[in-house]
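The step that takes the researchers longest sounds almost clerical: writing a folded protein down as plain text. The outcome of that step, for a single protein, is printed below.
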Amino acid sequence: MTVRRLVLWGMILVATSACRRGNDEPALASDPMVAPIRVEVKNNHALPIEIFVDGSAIHHRLGTVHPGMSATFQLPPALIGNGSVEFVAVSSASPQPNRTGPILLSPGAVVDYVIAQVLFNSTATVRQ
């Protein structure tokens, strides 16, 4: 009976140590599947611009970019992986916001969003 218990405990120890190994290692920031997506915004408009992103049924405010300034934002991981996203630029003086249209992003991508003097001329490009 004791030999049986000893063998059983040995098997449990081996099984738990094999399962545990994969869970202790932290996710690497250089892993391309978890690399963050950056949004670099340049505001050439005369007024401050509020930047939003829509994706995965989430409407998320990234922040404000003041006239003549640039800002860099990072997208929340919940927004990517389930389809495309759309960036929205809103000015307090314009009733019509600028929408980029659907953009499909992958981990590690960088979005360059240039807000033009005339809001509807703004552009967004993706680079890897």
Remarks:
- The helical segments are 2-24.
- The radius of gyration is 23 Å.
- The CA atoms of residues 53 and 87 lie 4 Å apart.
